[in-house]
Structure formats: structure tokens, C-alpha cells
Amino acid sequence: MKKRLIILVTMLFILMMAVPAMAEVNLDVNGKAYKPAYAPQVEAGTTMIPVSVAARTLGADLTIQDKQIELNKNGNILKMTEGSLAASYNGEDRTMPRAPELKDGEMLVPLRFVCESLSAQVLWQEDAQTVAIQYQEKRNDMSAEEMLGKSSQALADANTYKMKLNMDMTLGMQSGSEGTTMNMKTQADCAYQEKPLVMYMKQQLSGASADSSEKIENVKAEVLVNESGMYMTMPDYDGWIKLEVPGLDIKALMEQAGGQDVMSSITKMKESGMLLNYGNDGNKDGKDYWVLNITMSPDSFQNYLQSLMKQVPEVFNPPAEAANAENPLALEELFKNMQVDMFYQMWIDEKTFLPQFLDLDANMDLTMKIDDENKNPVEMSVQSKQNAKYELYDFGIDFSVPDVSSAISMSDYMAKQTAEMGNANQ
User: Fold this and answer.
1) At what angle do helices 262-271 and 298-311 cross, to 10 degrees?
2) Which pLDDT does position 104 carry in this prediction?
3) Most CB within 10 Å of its CB: which of 213, 296, 373, 416?
């Protein structure tokens, strides 16, 4: 049962996605509030920030090796060392007001020094206790928001594409006194069509628990999403299963998504606190790419979900009969208890404006209630760390999908598994 749940949670994640003597301050980037998972802190008059947050804010490449820290922004190199006030910028010696230090697993650096060294403007807003950072770039005379809009439109014009995914994930699950941590690897091939909506994915999972007591070896599964719903296969069932989520009206959700232009979608994500900027330009296999950095903090992720819930209330606030239906998942409760810190880089072809590569780094925490074998509700917590690489290809080419007309419901599948477990225990 535990292995089945690990596989199911892994598939769902793939589809989605007080320190003493210190005072917390707020952060504003280009006029928008931004709340990273680890908030900036003021210590002895200096605002300290995780160097990873500074890198995301400025779109810089970050390297940390032993105690050496390096930020690269458009070829300008800032070097620092943990525990030392000495720094260098393009070979020129500089002195920091406070040395970088490792706390709670985060490498903290002086915010103003780092940002101003890399040409950002930093202001302190006393009344709001807020550090305001101003830093904007353009590529091809377009802001980061405009570039994302143009790339999204190019993808929408293609309407179809395929994607390869390679993901490493650490998945921790705790229910009562029982818990396990799995190190997972996922490979997937996906085909996507925007109108009408079709998403078909074939994936292979493998992994083992930290103590090697549990293993998942080359488990294959498929997922199909269309306007009728979401379907999946499981390794212990020969057929398709329809994933039931109370109140999830696929048609209503798709109509809402289709009725909103690309820039409106981006604006709503931006208003939710999403951080969007340019990274360093890149080159792969002789092709030049613009690179967009996109960050969603736990707060911005929840803000975006709340915005979506207001736009499509019929999806998240189902009729009483749907809300009371017996079901293993509850959508609104699931989203409410999900915390996500997500960062990814989008590589955009400079000639076609199509996004061809995505690099993802995400942390997810989820608390949900499930029924045990005796139908008693128990609380389960899930933590996931993901690193993934995506490659998009075959733009504008049609594809075929399996027939799912004979799919059974998730409730029927769970009932079959419970019955089989009962028979096995007799």
C-alpha cells in the first residue's frame, strides 16, 4: 500500500509542481513584494539575505564550492568567502560590511553590497521596514515580461509539442509513527496539445528508501489529461483509472484558461508575487538562447492559487453532493495545505522565440488526510525536493493518444486494492 501511495504522490508532484539578535525585514523587487522561503534578516545593522535569493533576484549564476562563493552576471564576477570580509569584483578588491555566514543551511550575504556590486539599486523604506531592489534588463528591446509573453504566444501558435523530462527527487512521507524517505529518479516522454486540451505522458520511476529497505525498480506508468478528465495507469492494474477530484470541472477550468490571453495570465502571476527576470544568455549545441529566471515563493504560490480559485469558483467550490462524495483526494484542501518554493530557468530560442529547455529546482511541503485500511482518517505529511531538466521539441506536429473509454474510477481501484489486501491477510 505504501509503495502504491509513493508512486501516486510522485506522479501528482510531477504533474503539478527566529534567529536570536536578528530582525526580519520585507523585500520588494521592482515594485512588487517578494517573500522568499527564508526572509532577509537584519543583524548588527546589515541586512543579510540567502545568496541563492540574491542570485534569483538579479538573474545571476551562482557557484558555491567549499567556502568560496561566486556570482556571475553577464560576465561580471563577484567573489566572496564564507567568514571573510574580503571580496573581489572583476578582480578588484573590495571589503564587505559583514562576512558571509552559513545559518540554517543557507549561505547569507550582505544584501546591499551584493546587489549594488552587480549594478542594482537598493533603497531602505523605514516606515514599511522594507528593502527595495530595482533591477531591470531588456533583450531584443523587450522586458522579461514581454519576452515571456512572446515566447508563450509562439508556443500557443504551435499548439502541439513533445517534451522529454529527467527528474531527481527526494520524497519524504510521514504518517503517524511511520515514515519513509525515498530517492527517486523519473524519466518521462510527454506530448501536449493546447486546443483542444490533450496531455499524454509516459513515465518510468525507480528509487530506493534511504535505508534500502524499500525499492521501486523501473515502474512504468502513463497519464492522460483531456477535456473529460485525468486518467492514469498503475503498475498493479491492467487498465486505465480516472482520477477523481471532487469539484474539479475540467470543462470550466479549460474555458477559463482559454478565455484569458497570454499577457493577462502573466500579469496575474506577477501580481501574485512571482519574480521574473533575465538570467545570463546561454548557448547549447551552437544555438543562442535568452534565459528567463522565474521564481515562485510559498506566498506567491498560494496567492496564485487563491486568484485561480476566485476566477473559477465552480471548480474549487463544488455542489454539496460532490463535496460529500467518497473520494481519496479533496482539491481545495490539497492546495490549501501545499507550500511550494519553485525556481526554473526557461531557455528561449533567439530565432523562433520558442522555449526549448527548462531547468527546475523546487521544494514542496504537503499535508493531507487519507483513509487507512479501516476507513479512519489519518494525517500524512509529504516533503519533496526536485531537480529536473525538460527538453521541448516537435513543435506543431500531431500525435495520437490511447483509448481510455473503459477506465474505472479511482474509488473502484482503491476498493479493489483494499479487497486484495484483505484476502492476502486471511
Assistant:
1) 130
2) 86
3) 296
